[in-house]
Amino acid sequence: MSASRARGAASDPGHGGRRRAWVELLAGRVRRQQLGPEGEPKVGESAVRLLRRHLNLGDLVLEVDGPPRKQLCLSRLIDYDGPGAHTDLSSSLIGSALRDQAAQLGVPAAVLSSQVVASGLVQVCEADAGPPPKVLMTPDQRKKLSSLFEIAQNLLAQSMFSRLSFCQELWKVQNSLLLEAVWRLHVQNIVSLQELLESHADSQAVVAWLSRDLRLLCEQTEAPCQHADVARAMLSDFVQMLVLRAFQKNVDVRGTVEPEWMTQVAVAVLERMLASALEALAAGIQEGSAAHKAVSCWFSVFSGHMYRSIISTESPKRFFCHTLTQILTHKPVLKVSDAVQMQREWSFARTPPLLSGLYRRLFVILSPEELVDCLQEVLETREVNWQHVLSCVSTLVICLPDAQQLVNGWVSRLLAHAFESCDLDSMVLAFLVARQAALEGPAAFPSYAAWFQAAFGSARGFHSCSKKALVFLFKFLSDLVPFEAPRYLQVHVLHPPLVPSKYRALLTDYVALARTRLADLKVSIENMGLYEDLSSAGDVTEPHRQTSQDVEKAIMVFEHTGKIPAAVLEASIFRRSYYLSHFLPALLTPRVVSTRRRERGAGSAESGVPVGVSPKSCLPSQLPRVPDSRAVLIESLRRAEKIPPSLYATYRQACSTVREKPEDAASRREVEPSCAEEPLGLLTTALRELRASVTDPPQHDALSAQMAVISEQLRSALGLSEDDSDVEGAPVQLSVRAPELRPWEQRVVDLLLTSFCQNLMAASSVAPPDRQGPWAAHFVRTLCRRRLLPALLSRLCQLLRHQGPSLSASHVVGLAALAVHLGESRSALPEVHVGPPTPARGLPVPELFDILLPCRTQESSALCLKFCTAAISYSLCKFSSQSRDILYSCLSPGLIKKFQFIVFRWFSEARDPPSWEDPASSPWRPLCLPSADWRRAALCLWKQRTSRELLQREGLRLTYRDWLQLELEIQPEVDSLSDTERRDFHQWAIHQHFLPAPSATGGCDGDLEVACATLVDVLMDFCQSSRSYDRSENSDLVVGGCTGNRDIFSRLQEMAADLEQGPAPLGHAAPRGHFLFGVFCRRLQALARGWDVASRLQRQRELLMCKRILLGLPPSVLVGSPRLEQLAAPDCDDFFHLVNSELRNFSYDGALTHDITAHFFRGLLNACSRSRDPSLAADLTLTACQTQCPLLLTSALLWWPHLEPELHHRWRRCSQSPLPTELRRLQEAQHFAASVLSPLAAPPAPGPAWLCAAALHFVIRRAGKESIRQELGQLDSQGEELLVFLFFFSLMGLLSSHLTPQAIGSLKALDVCAEVLGCLQRKRISWLPLFQLTEADAGLGRTLLRLAPDHQVRLLPVAFYSLLSYFDKDALLQEDAFLHVAVNMYLKLVGLFVAGETGAVWTPAHGGELQAQGDPVSLITNARLFLLQSIPRCPKRSFSDVAELLGASADCDPEVRAALLSRQQAVLDPDLCQEPRLF
With a cut of 50, which residues of the chain have pLDDT below it? Predict the structure, then answer.
């Protein structure tokens, strides 16, 4: 009754004036009725039954917190027990409702739950449905889906959810599913992707649905949106799942073997995605389009980091290999003939970036060996897409340095298999792969010409095994002819396979066929250029253009070598058709004799007809007053009779004719304007329009179109072809000393440079460089055409190096900015080969400016400072917001170091510690003003924080070595600093700045010895570089004829004196030697050792510098001073080693030069004066010289007349005692030698004998007598050793006379040797041991070898057989050592002749004197005849070591060997060796 009243009260709107809420009624009910413990469950059950009757399951599972609605809100109904009970109560409520509903319907609760959740998922996905198709969800959808997934997870926990039923329900509405929802099911562990895909019965439908959604996902991933991270995560998970299921073996996630069905689906999806991407690439998708973004996104899945979660690396590797196979076999529609014709279009540079990027990603996982194996397997077993195969080969050899050898080996295996089994497929593949790899240049693979020659140009070629192989090769080449490019045909004709003479007809037939094809293509073999590149597969260059290039190249080679180029000489003999009809007419273009002085730095004019201009409308260029390289080359060819007299006469007559009528020529130019004037006007107009756009920021978007117009007009003005936009190619040849360019090219380049400078100044007046847009970079790229770049660099050389002081501030600023943008494009620019005065080596274009801006004079330093200040300021402002690496790559390190160098020299305030300024203060604005204050700008830049960070970067910081190199180039007479200022600056730089600085920052760590060693090293490098030999009329010499800053050598002398006078090292450790010899030793060891002229001259030049540095330093450097408390000899070991190992080989006639000899003895006496016993110290040193460095003693004997007075004077200053014993011994030897040549009887020879012999040899040489027979008679009473040693020195004198043009006559030296030899033979003294000396000999043998240069010891066989006519043959035959010595000398003589070393003996300077001695061939012939006559007469004891002689003569002279064998057998045969008894 009460319940019915309550219901009535609740439903009665008029009771109490308002209708009470259901909750209020319940609350009141609770207050009126107190329930016991057993009543609460009953009330709960009643409430649940009430809700079940009014429950909508579809709305229940989708209910989320939100604004109050009129419908039933579950959360409000169950919130009475607090927030924590919400989840449990709702789950139990939903579970209970689902069970009741399932019971009423008669279905399992799990199936019903799955259906309800699936229905809710579809409602969420369809909430934002509409075109275009989507795969990603909105934030609101994600929020609803999160609540739904919470309910599903709770149902799973209660075992009330069927995954299979859920998947089936989803597939029924698969078109409504969003891919993100499927992915979140997988991530939330509700239903995995694998389960969902496996639940569908139709695999094709699954593949189609997933592929479509993955493509949409790729498009939306690259689109700008806030959910890109979600899209990338989805793509990564899907790809990992597909790769793992498709390519990992023995995957068993649930304890069962993975079904084959799932593998097929995964593979099919991956293949379809890749196929659609490749088809889009083939269709030519536009960059930035949706298709392009989708392809780019899918290709990004091949990055290695995407598969880090996959533990095994085998799955990604199999996937990548499968992908590569699919790429190579995708739509194989092209035939082999198409590939032969089109393969140059498939090079790496022309491959779509997306495809080449995909290749590179595949190469990260797969090793080069695996890639080559995959390529080989696919090509052997499948039909392939030749474009993809060959572009893959190009990418392979470009991106993997190790691939070149593998590809080469693969091609070799293909050729071997092709010729072994006549397999045409292998042959085709080998040629295609080799040609494709060769397209990428010699850095990646040998050129096609080189490869073809290596494969077929020798007897070891693959084709040389049989006639069958030859027929197969030429049949293959003949079949290729209709499809071949002309370049390949030219290679085959000019470098044909090596064919035996009996099969020559095969080659002749092929050559005739190839020539016919070339004729059809209008390409002539005879008219090929001298320097035409056969390695390129491009189109054949037009004859007139190639001829012009050949002339320029020939002149450039002639400038560098001074000789007629070999290519020109070969063409004059073997290709006379091209040489006479094309090359010579282009070279002999008439030129007028110049009647006015040309502007400095403008360069001499080149050929008369610029490219693209009619010859009739142009005047011939002018001959320079001083013959230039072109004129000298023409004259050299005329003298070599390589120019027909009639053609040369026509050339001279044409020059004279034009010279006689200059007025007519001028009027003709006025009447007939050049046909190129119109393109030049159009170019000027286009440049003027560009300036308007540069100064108007809203028009920056139109810059690309305007630059395209300028590029087209520039090509028309210069007559360039389409392929001239490519800057890659041969290095640019540039002569710094005399840069040359054609007048028309100079007009065009000047117009472009002027426009660039004006545009920069105009743009800088509106905005700083970083807000000017990309116009400058586009402009510079337009200037970098292959044909225009050499002219541009030549003009920059003229302006900066030769006309720098005349440039205005705007010119300097503009050219500096141009240099910065050239550095920005350095990777795309060729190297520059710079001619004299710098070494001819390849330089990047940015480093060229370092050479063009020297710092030698005040004017050049000022220009360099302006240019460096402008370049650094512009780059810091232009790239302020970009990476520092970009900034550093745009600037030449040399220019940055020169900026620091000049600032240090000119501004004393820069030498103080830096005070940091505001980083925003930039010197760029002051530079753009009409009157730029360069001093203020340089100091502002110096103090700026950003620039200081730049200058402190490793590689850009000015080091001590850099400072020395730059300071050496300063010419003091035109320096901005006075002598006093310069000395003060040097003292600050060395002792205050670089000496205390750590070595890590380019300093010396406070070590004065290190500073001296570095200075010596840099000084020697500078003096041997071409920079020091640049012509300068007012420069003094530093060392040995090198111009430069002589004060630097003075600093070396001062520092060396500081080291010598400094404190002695602590402790009693032995001194480590003078640092100078360590520098010399290290530099000499770095040089190549050899007997060729180049190696000897290089070493001789290095030693000359070493000697001159030693002579410029105190003599104590050579001889270390002994300590006063020790009775020891001065330390001379380092100098002795230098003399024995190096100076000895450049000594003359057993003696050093006077200067170094006198310097040593000065040092010796100075060191002895500091000893406690000067005489003992001198005697110990000179005694050591006898065994360790005897060359110093013989040198003293040679120069004794000049040396003796100075020695006496110096000795009297340090001691009152007589000369030391060893010095008196030298004096006595000299007196003995003089007495021999006097009428008086000679006294006994003092010891040692070799010393007296040396003195006597020098006295005889100075006397210059016709005969010394009478003087030798006075030696009868002397010891035998004296004559033997005199003979040795005479032999050395004979060889010196042969080798040195200024030496005494070789005939006179030969007469002296002959007379000494005759004296020895009369006294029966054995002299043969002199020709058996070795380093292993103890005592005098080693001493004599240390007195002669190594190359003279090698030439002893020449001296031996030069005295052949003076031998006492009968006496010699009786000596046991004769046969061994004679055969050994003969074999060495032949070896010298074969090595070409005998040519140094028979020089043109001695041609007249050596007529009587004959040439090397005559000497060898006479020696051989002498041996063949002497061998049968030698006694049997002479053959004790004949086995050694037979072994040495095996490959030298068969007849001598036969004579030795015959005589040996006769000795061994008792009957033959028994001599007849005549008495």
Answer: 1-17, 22-23, 25-26, 29-32, 60-61, 63-89, 251-257, 535, 537, 593-622, 660-676, 722-727, 918-920, 1028-1043, 1066-1070, 1124-1125, 1303, 1403-1412, 1472-1479
pLDDT in tens, 1311-1350: 889 888 988 888 888 888 888 888 777 667 788 888 999 8
The predicted structure's pLDDT at residue 1004: 92
Residue 46: the pLDDT is: 66
Helix, strand or coil for residue 234?
Answer: helix
Q: Is the peptide bond before 768 cis (omega within 30 degrees of 0)?
A: no
- Cis ω on the peptide bond leading into residue 132 (within 30° of 0)? yes
Contact between 124 and 141 under an 8 Å Cβ cutoff? The reply is: yes
CB 818 within 8 A of CB 780: yes
Beta 622-623 vs 592-593: how paired, if at all? parallel
- Compute the distance between CA of residue 674 and CA of residue 679 in angstroms, rounded to an integer: 10
Which is nearest to 1152 in space by CA: 1202, 1193, 1111, 1106? 1193
Asked if residue 944 lies in contact with residue 880, where contact means CB atoms within 8 angstroms, the answer is: no
Contact 845, 861 (CB under 8 A): no
Looking at residue 503, its amino acid is Y
Provide DSSP, 1093-1115.
Answer: HHHHHHHHHHHHHHHHHHHHS-G
Structure tokens at 718: 């210069």
Tell me how far apart the alpha carbons of residues 1077 and 1139 are, in angstroms, rounded to a whole number. Answer: 11
Within the chain, what is the greatest distance between any pair of CA atoms? 180
pLDDT computed for residue 349 by the predictor? 77
Cross-strand bridge partners of residue 1131: 1120
CB-CB neighbours of 83 under 10 Å: 8
Q: Are 1024 and 1101 in contact (CB under 8 A)?
A: yes
- Whole-number pLDDT of residue 1173: 86
Burial group, residue 660, by CB count within 10 angstroms (0-12, 13-18, 19+): exposed
Say whether 109 sits in a helix, a strand or coil.
helix
Give the gyration radius of the chain's Cα atoms: 47
- The Cα–Cα gap between 652 and 647 comes to 9
How many degrees, rounded to 5, is the angle at CA 227 between CA 225 and CA 231? 110
Angle in degrees, 0-180, between the axes of helices 1378-1394 and 1416-1430, rounded to the nearest 10? 150
| Residue whose C-alpha is closest to residue 169's, from 178, 160, 177 | 177
What SS3 string covers 950-999?
Answer: HHCCCCCCCCHHHHHHHHHCCCHHHCCCCHHHHHHHHHHHHHHHHCCCCH
For residues 1305 and 137, give the distance between their C-alpha atoms in angstroms, rounded to a whole number.
Answer: 104
Tell me how far apart the alpha carbons of residues 431 and 452 are, in angstroms, rounded to a whole number. 9
- How many CA atoms lie less than 13 Å away from 683 in the CB half-sphere? 24
Cα separation values, 49 from 12, 55, 85, 1054, 1360, Å: 25, 10, 20, 112, 133
d(CA 6, CA 21): 12
1192: phi then psi, degrees, rounded to nearest 5: -65, -35
Residue 198: partners with Cβ closer than 8 Å, 6 or more residues away: 259, 261, 262
Q: Summarize pLDDT for 105-130 with one digit per residue, the tens.
A: 777 878 888 888 888 888 888 877 66
Give SS3 for 949. Answer: helix
Residue labelled with tokens 């045969």: 1469
List, in sequence order, every beta strand (DSSP E) within 1174-1219: none
CA distance 651 to 655: 6
Tokens matching residue 692: 């308007």
In sequence order, the 6+-apart residues with CB closer than 8 A to the CB of 687 are 710, 751, 752, 755
DSSP labels for 107-175?
S-HHHHHHHHHHHHHHHHHGGG--SSP--S--HHHHHHHHHHHHHHHHHHHTT---HHHHHHHHHHTGG
Backbone angles phi, psi at 742, to 5 degrees: -70, 150
Please name the residue that has the structure tokens 């056969």.
Answer: 534
Alpha-carbon span 232 to 136, nearest angstrom = 11
